[in-house]
Write a structure and sequence with these properties.
Helix content is 40%, strand content 15%. It is α+β, with helices and mostly antiparallel strands and 302 residues long. Among the domains are: 43-116, Arc Repressor Mutant, subunit A (Orthogonal Bundle); 195-302, Arc Repressor Mutant, subunit A (Orthogonal Bundle), CATH 1.10.10. Helix 10 (197-204) runs antiparallel to helix 11 (209-219), helix 11 (209-219) packs across helix 12 and helix 11 (209-219) packs across helix 13. The chain is elongated. Bound molecules: zinc ion. Zinc ion is lined by residues 142, 144-145, 147, 178-179, 181-182.
Length: 302
């Protein structure tokens, strides 16, 4: 069965349920390479590395980054802590996530923790703790097709709605549970935007939704941008229930754009936007929009 490509318009129409207290730690993707390594006792580490022996060994490597331990010291340490996993397995497990170099210092082979393992995709390095996983699955069914494990026998996988490559974080609002069909459909859908990944992630990084949208339109240099892509980028930092309104906000800032509806691209009407004129961003974007809105309302004839 070929999974259908999820309809982003529909997804945006159904905001994720967020009955969550507290916010999870954020790990934005652009900064991932520079993201500090997790502290040994942290939830971040536990979310990445479940195995207790691995976490213990990581703690030793982390604390002794400047004076790397030898294999003997590591093995002794693990045995003292009654760790069950042997050293070579521990090392292999940790190297899945971390760059651990074998170096010869003082005539001895030592292990130095250097940073994150490069071969891992950024998405794997945005940790989703068991607690976040449970919260994301609380709605019961697949976030796109609604099928449930109980009734339809589907397996739900928790993933990021806005992908990490575009600035999506492990914020609860950005997590959802998808069945395998929808998950692979969603990946295919995102893949169609892969050629624009750099431009998209730059735009997605701004704190204000209006600016994310404006910069995205600018990045496409006057070419038509599909509205569902705008919806994703608008929601990159926090979910936007009404991203069309955020597009309209740009008009209060002196921006001009054109809108076009296309009826020949599949089952539903597709809307595209194209930038005509941009303007300089004010220091306080929400305040500037509110002020302009007030002004225009007062000018309206009664
Ligand atoms: Zn599904």
């Amino acid at each position: 069965m070929v999974p259908r490509v999820p309809d982003y318009q529909l997804i945006l129409a159904v905001p994720p349920r967020t009955c969550l207290e507290g916010r999870a730690g954020r790990a934005t993707v652009d900064s991932m390479a520079d993201t500090p390594l997790p502290e040994p006792e942290s939830e971040r580490l536990a979310a990445l590395v479940g195995n207790g022996s691995l976490r213990l060994a990581y703690g030793l490597l982390y604390r002794r980054r400047n004076h790397p331990p030898t294999e003997q010291e590591m093995s002794f340490f693990l045995a003292t802590a009654s760790a069950e996993t042997p050293f070579d397995q521990v090392l292999r497990g940790l190297r899945e996530y971390f760059d651990i170099a074998a170096v010869t210092l003082d005539g001895q082979r030592r292990y130095r923790l250097l940073g994150w393992a490069g071969r891992h995709s950024k998405s794997e390095l945005v940790p989703i703790s068991p607690r976040l996983r449970v919260q994301a699955l609380a709605r019961g069914g697949c976030a796109l097709c609604g099928r449930t494990p109980g009734q339809h026998g589907v397996v739900l996988e928790v993933g990021l709605r806005v992908p990490p490559e575009w600035g999506g974080t492990n914020d609860p609002e950005n997590l959802w549970g998808l069945c395998e069909d929808c998950d692979s459909g969603w990946r295919q859908y995102l893949q169609t935007y892969a050629p624009y990944a750099d431009r998209i992630s730059r735009a997605a990084n701004y704190p204000e939704p209006q600016r994310r949208i404006g910069e995205l339109l600018k990045a496409f240099d006057g070419a038509w941008v599909p509205s569902d892509l705008i919806g994703i980028v608008a929601s990159a930092k926090e979910f936007q229930e009404d991203y069309q309104r955020r597009i309209r906000d740009l008009r209060f800032l002196g921006w001009e754009y054109k809108q076009e509806k296309r009826y020949n691209e599949g089952a539903r009407v597709k809307v595209y936007y194209r930038l005509v004129r941009s303007a300089r961003w004010p220091d306080n974007i929400p305040a500037a929009i509110a002020a302009e809105e007030r002004k225009r309302r007062q000018l309206k004839p009664l």
